[in-house]
Amino acid sequence: MTAPLLDVRGLRKFFPIAKGLLHRVTGHVRAVDDVSFTVQEGETLGLVGESGCGKTTTARCILRAIEPTGGQILYRTGSDAVVDLAPMSAGELAPLRKDIQMIFQDPFGSLNPRMTLFDNVGEPLLVNGVRNRRERMDRVADLLRLVGLRPEFMHRFPHAFSGGQRQRIGIARALATGPRLVVADEPVSALDVSVQAQVLNLLLELQSRLRLTFLFVAHDLSVVRHISDRVAVMYVGQLVELAPTGEIFRRPRHPYTAALMRAVPVPDPRVSCDDGILRGEVPSPAAPPPGCYFHPRCVFAEDRCRREAPVLQEVTPGHFARCHFAAELELGMG
Amino acid sequence: MSDVQVAVGAAVEDRVAVASNWKLVWWRFRRHHLALVSAGILICMYLVVLCPEFFSTQNPERTDARQAFIPVQTLHFFDDGWNPWVPGIAGKRNPVTLRMEWTTDPQRKVRVQFFTAGEPYRVLGLFGTNIHVIGAADPGQRIFLLGSDRLGRDQWSRIMRGTQTSMTVGLVAVTLSVIFGVVLGGISGYFGGAIDLVIQRLIELLQSVPTIPIWLALSAALPRDWTPIQVFFAITVILSLIGWTTLAREVRGRFLALREEDFVLAARLAGCSRMRIILRHMVPTFMSHIIATSSLAIPVMIINETSLSFLGLGIRPPAISWGVLLQEAQNIQTLALAPWLLIPGLIVIVAVLAFNLVGDGLRDASDPYSH
Amino acid sequence: MPPIPTATKPLLRVRDLRVSFRMDEGTVRAVDGVSFDVFPSQVVGIVGESGCGKSVTMRAVLQLIDAPGRITSGEILYRQGATPIDLARLPPRGRLMRALRGAEIALIPQEPMAAFSPVHTVGAQIIEAILLHERRDGRPIGREQARAMTVELFRDVGISMAEQRIDAYSWQLSGGLRQRAMIAMALSCKPRLLIADEPTTAIDVTTQAQILALLRELQRKYQTAIIFITHDLGVIAQMAHYVVVMYLGRVMEEGPVDEIFHSPMHPYTKALLRSIPSLQTEVRAALPVIAGALPHPFNRPAGCPFHPRCEDIMRERCAMAVPALHSLGPRRAVSCFLHSDLAEPA
């Protein structure tokens, strides 16, 4: 078996909390705290969690849009060499940039409104060496066709397009450099319901056509379920569960995952969602509770959970959970 | 894809679809009628700036003690058809006060011509001509469209020259401020860290210095023997030395906000260089804001220059600016006697209002993408 | 779901409501002939995508339409006592409308952060509302009493340490608590009609589940009528008794929640229900989609607003005429030529 395309080991990102006139550091927000996972080539890993759980920070660390505090981000390059992205300087990263691209959440903010589609989508080509304008035009036309837009739109500005169309443009730009890994940060959560499905289908189709690897960050479990091969659930900066999609939805091993699934309102009035509602609120990553971070909200919590922090353990092959009782609990969806 | 066909239909929408940022700004600005009118006024004023002599009726420095305090000679256009003229004036010395008292005499008509030959001058230093937009038909006659001052100089022509000076001071001072502000604010915002700290403290220092005394001190320190041109440039530099600070802060704020924008991150991830991100993505994004802010800064500069000159510390005679002209209206006696000497004040008000209205319009139009 | 309460007379009756916005680029008909009823102690869900006019409808009921928007026609009949008042005719800033807003009709906004003033404590703002509207034996009540009521309300909406929390500022509360405080404020004057405008869109899913459960419980307890506006079909299924499906300013279909979800009649409703990924659909399979995009508000299609994206389009009919909202029973209506040939007068 070849090495995974991406192997994240013990990733950490702490933001200092500075107080007072002298900006003395009084503590740290542990936005990402010891996160490890792998992504195989050609698969989609869904990263889910509620706001503030560190999923976006994790994604941005992998993209090296922000500096990780610690850990390794091992990436297998096109020539099968494994490199660690975490300590790289901007200069060292430059040749790898075209391999790892991003799709943004906000279809309005992610395109430069002052540039035409040709300039927006063609810029990655230009800075990666496609100097000839004619050639760039052809490539942009191909990319627009690929995402289901008419190439004639190349000379229009982003303001002429709807949210769903802009998201397609954003995808075309991300694909311009021929990336191997695409990090999608909530790519459909700003879209209308009827357009969401179109974009999800497009991503699935592109993946099979171009053999793309996706790291798909989202808060919506039903969307993640729809697109991912495997799902990783984050809570207060930590990975709490990681398993193949079918398995995690059939038999979650972490009480938080189970609660998260039950919290999604079912679009069927005959199914009641009244029971199993999680109490309390997500703790602050600046001052997480002792022991298991989830214990104050967990109905199964025992003394051990209050004292001892659980580790991410492999419950069954390929199914990891950060819970002392992962093997015993019966959390299947009613 | 069929969704595309649905969204695109009307020709109007097509026109909007390919409209660049500046076009959108212009479409929005156009709706602001007051701003549009003001822009027209400013364009006229800058035409005067380009060549004040063309608009003058005579040499603004020509004195004649016997023609002091001549009142406004109203321009008439018709006299049995198109035949422009101004009423003649007759002076009589009051035997009690021994002051010349002028009365207009509509019976005696001084013929006026448009595009008439007069005093020779050079246009922008390029070529010589002697055509003026308006002047007395008889080159020997002097006409005073806006009256004359205590030395018998023609106020109309002096205002034209003053407009050139004052409007240029405003423009040059703001341009200098923008250059300082964008460069220093940009460095401060983009690089952050220690450089940012130093620049920010410098701005605070400059802003905490009371401006009027510092201007007074600086302009009082200008050597007395400098030529009017040298004084003029010194004044603009002094004005812009303080003016750049607010702009630098604004630019820095924009840089900080833009650094977090998704499309800037996208450009970074695409592999764009720093320079490219700044020049292609960040600067164009706030350029329209900078222009709007500067057009609001110009009137402040004009007021500052006018105040300094009025106090006798800015531009000094024989150079002419609006402030210098207003110096003539400093005492109450002149005001009672020759109220037309206040006309330069009116011009200042019009110019400042116009700049403010244009600036407001530009500011409202500068972000056509806001929802 | 409890059975639909069958009160005889509606509390709110909206009839052929039209709201348009005059802009330089043209007139946007944001709400274009909307009719529905709200019965006492019933939850009516208005569901639709962006630009469907659901929020504008809500603002029209509250008379909060800002210029350049205007209610151009239609009735909003609110039953207060024996004779209904037409809210559409009331001056928006008039005394009667101001008295109704807050006291009789209350709003839970989407963003509670924006709804609370950051310089006053949350409790002070609720106390203020109570002092303004609440009367006991015809006399205004005292501040002490209002404070006690506020603490009680905070307990009702499930805020722990209510006595301390009412002295907090809105920015000190978490998103969930802030929304709970907002609900407390909306309930402070015991409104008969509560309008919830996407109250859970800005909060996380586990908190959303808490808030929805709370709203259900409070609704049962106080028997308040609620207009619940959302784009989320899951939320609608869990909250509403009666559903109004809107698209581009028009009602596509309305009916009891079970019928909308289990026997939808309008092609739009059907397509919408098919296209949402849920925890029940197959993993990693292409979803059935609604073709096309939402049209730009200035570029509304002629005829049925949904026809360019409709799978069951009848070429000549749907593109030419606008189908009227046709009543199929006492509480069921659909506007589609598949079900009735009735068209809007041109």
Low-confidence stretches of chain A are: none
Can you summarize the main beta sheet of chain B? 4 strands, antiparallel
The total count of strands of chain B amounts to 4
How far is the first residue's CA from the last residue's CA of chain A? 37 Å
Record field, number of beta strands of chain A? 12
Q: What global shape of chain A is seen?
A: globular
Number of discrete helical segments of chain A: 10
Terminal CA distance of chain B reads 27 Å
The largest sheet of chain A is: 8 strands, mixed
Helix content of chain A: 25-40%
Overall pLDDT metric of chain B: 80
Order of helices and strands of chain B: HHHHHEEEEHHHHHHHHH
Helix segment tally of chain B: 14
β-strand percent of chain B reads: 5-15%
The radius of gyration of chain A is 21 Å
Q: Could you list the spans of chain B in which at least 5 consecutive residues all have pLDDT below 50?
A: 1-10
Oligomer: heterotrimer
Strand order of the largest sheet of chain A: 6-7-8-3-9-10-12-11
Element order of chain A: H for helix, E for strand: EEEHEEHEHHHEHEHEEHHHEE
Strand order of the largest sheet of chain B: 1-2-3-4
Chain pair with largest interface: A-C, 52 and 50 residues
